[in-house]
Design brief:
This protein has about 220 residues and is an alpha/beta fold. The protein has a single domain, classed as NAD(P)-binding Rossmann-like Domain (Rossmann fold), CATH 3.40.50. The chain is built from eight helices and nine strands. Strand 5, helix 4 and strand 6 form a beta-alpha-beta unit. The chain is globular, with a radius of gyration of 17 Å.
Amino acid sequence: MSTAEISKKNVFVAGGTGFMGRRMIEELLRRGHRVRALVRPGSEKKVPAGCEAATGDALSADSMAPMAAHADVFVQLVGTAHPNPAKGEQFRSVDFVAGCAGADAAVRAGVKQFVYVSVAHPAPIMKSYVAVRAAVEEHIRKSGLHATILRPWYVLGPGRRWPLLIKPLYALMSLIPTTRESAQRLGLVTNEQMNAALVQAVEQPANGIRILNVPDIRKAKL
């Protein structure tokens, strides 16, 4: 589909200054969409040129709902940077609260489409992170929103390429019947693939709840 054929959207983004958010916003603007991004006070210049910055609290539905008014799509990308097993309390106080607040804000603002970046599960590690993201998914389901939930495991990008060292292990696991499904579900995705999947989620509305697992994210193209 060419950019001329795309229905232009009003998009509200929470978490638009991170490495995934900035790239997604740039692509959405290039394709003619209008984007407003939630930022902390003083961070207005961190959003890409052409994006409207709105200062507010990513942990408060009351703060975000007025800003999301008139949006067609709410994209929730807020989360703890560089998650690891030692950050369980941050997952509960930031990721869970922000995810639920985003869904609640979308409902209050009358936004019909919600896009949420969750995490692949089940998984043998990062159990507190997985539990929090799964709890947000359940909150989204109960909200009644039409939502696309993306479930990457690890997104490769600048400063995030060490997992390439274990890529041969993934290849081996994919050949073994008992580990093949886990290797696919917990596989690596590139920043380019993730960006394409996010943009497609914005441009192609979900009907109910749509789940994009790692194999689906890898297939996304712009």
